[in-house]
Amino acid sequence: MIKTEEWGLIDYEAALGRQTTLYNEAIATKLAGGRCDETVITCQHNHVYTLGKSGKDSNMLLSTQRLASLGVQLYHIKRGGDITYHGPGQIVMYPIIDLEQHHIGLKDYVWRLEESVITTAGDYGITCGRLKGATGVWIDAGRPTARKICAIGVQSSHYVTMHGLALNVNTDLSYFNNINPCGFTDKGVTSMAVECGTEIDIKEVRDKLVSNFLALI
């Protein structure tokens, strides 16, 4: 059975440490021949930027001094993808899943992460989908008005996953102006609140998102 944990508003470094501990424990159990514990973690972060292992430092548009003056940190991490922003009003979901137990490949897993967001957004009348060559969930994909509502970046070892997705619900999108989000310079970002024209109940969205994701695993 996959457990769920809601960590609330938590600093990125603290969440990364807790997540890494669960991830390493799951891998150790699997390598010892046991069935590892699986957990879907949800939380929100204080303002932070994270840069994936394939990302470019040039996609951070602020100097180290300017970041410090804003009280915002930048972390280089091991997930896939480029740079993104996390902050209050954004749902971050970190599934620690043994893909082998579910007979799922990594590409199929990412598809299921995307699908869980597409389904959740659809519950609020937001039509979104995929953009060829770009991981994540988009609105108006393939058009000049293409804008990203959810970023996805995953790390895996021995088919056990960590990191995951970040869905903009009531996010302050101005923080994305300080970066080239996910490495793009010609595409925008959006949130559920912007698309719906009103603030959204983030707890309700979180519950729907977790439920929709678990239904696909």
Summarize this structure briefly.
This protein is of the alpha/beta class and 217 residues long. Helix content is 29%, strand content 30%. The relative contact order is 0.18.
Number of strands: 11
Rg (C-alpha, Å): 17 Å
Shape: globular
Low-confidence stretches: none
Largest sheet: 8 strands, mixed
Straight-line distance between termini: 11 Å
* Count of separate DSSP helical elements: 5
Assess the beta-strand content as a share of residues: 25-35%
Instruction: Give the oligomer, counting copies of the same chain as homo and different chains as hetero.
Output: single chain
Q: Taking all residues together, what is the mean pLDDT?
A: 93
Order of helices and strands: EHEEHEEEHEEEEEHH
Helix/strand class: alpha/beta
Measured as a percent range, the helix fraction is 25-40%
Describe it for me?
With 217 residues, the protein is an alpha/beta fold. Helix content is 29%, strand content 30%. The chain has helices at 12-31, 64-70, 106-122, 192-196, 202-214; strands at 3-10, 39-45, 48-51, 73-76, 83-86, 90-96, 129-131, 134-139, 147-157, 160-168, 188-189. β9 and β10 form a beta hairpin.
